[in-house]
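Ticket #4471: structure export looks truncated?
Reporter: QA, pipeline team
Priority: medium

Steps to reproduce: submit the single chain below to the structure queue and open the exported record.
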Amino acid sequence: GNTTGRAVLDLLHEQTLKLSGHKQAYDICFFLAKSSYKPYLTMLETWIHNGIIDDPYGEFMVQENKDIIHHESSLEQEFNDKFWSRRYILQRNNTPILFQSSSDMILNTGKYLNAIRESAFDYNDDINIDMSTSILRIDKQLLMNNYKKLEYTIREKDLDETLEEAYKYSSEILLDLILNKYHLIERFQTLKHYFLIDKGDYIVQFMDSAEDELTKRARDIDENKIQSLLDVSLAITSDDQYKDDVRIKMFHYDLISMLERVLNIESSTNINETMEIKLTGLESFSLDYEVKWPISLVINRNCLTRYQMLFRFLFYIKYIERLLCNVWRAHKNGGRRRRRVRDRKQIITKPNGAAYLRHKMLHFVENLLYYMSFEVIESHWHTFEHNLKK
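Actual output as written to the record:
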């Protein structure tokens, strides 16, 4: 008939299983299945050991979308990581039944190796290699040496063991690359310091210098000036090695609209451009972060957008706290009256409802910040960092 590709492989595999009780017929069918699987297994080996698709007839289970390529800075205006999720696609109709259960693992194994290849670093058998001495671009040499070749068998377990070994190797080597060469943990710590306002000194310094500019309407703000003021604040208050990668970002929609945009994009629905509303610089101000490949696989636009939403909320609350503190100080200085008591002056603060209200407001804002920073962010951060270091 017109049976080709995966259908032929499945047919021969099923017939081989059925004939397991008839030795001569089984041997013939097994030979045919083994011979037919050989080209497919060669393609599979090239994928799981090199991260390369060598599929001249379009019969392999993984397809490459060559229209999607990575950039040196992979944080374009996308909430979803196109490169990682859409460059390589699993073709279920080209996946033999023998690999149905392990298809996702096969897809990820090659993707991990391809990410290493795109990072332009050479590897040998040692996962803990000193990558500072390995700078040769990988061509078509094997990334995984001394691997066990794939051979057709009716026992899926035997193939799964080989596939799992390749998956473990590729995942460990990519993790080693990202953690040790590109300092993923340190990168996340930078995000925590600045986006989650872990170290608030720079915020105080920045607000002192930029408040007048940020109280203007967002469209009237000189962004270059704001960036310069931020750079000065970071230089004075921080010794973080990645502080130079922190940038300002002025949004033209409020925090609620930003959240709605993210939810709409993640649910793959069409979104309308949010109408520009009259925001002040304080309401539209946020941070941005420059990350390069392959760290952008982890800290991608999707991830960074969430940090930006948290920062916008925390930053505005910090500003409200600042205003209330200023009002409180002004009230204390202006609400005093003096009287002489036995030939000496004594300061008496006259209580009133406004002062009590301000005190309650300030108390609430301070407790809200404490709850957000320590009860929520800090506790979850410890869990996140612990899992990351496992």
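Status: closed, not a bug. The export was complete when the record was re-opened. Leaving a note from the reviewer for reference: Residues 61 and 94 are 5 Å apart (CA to CA).
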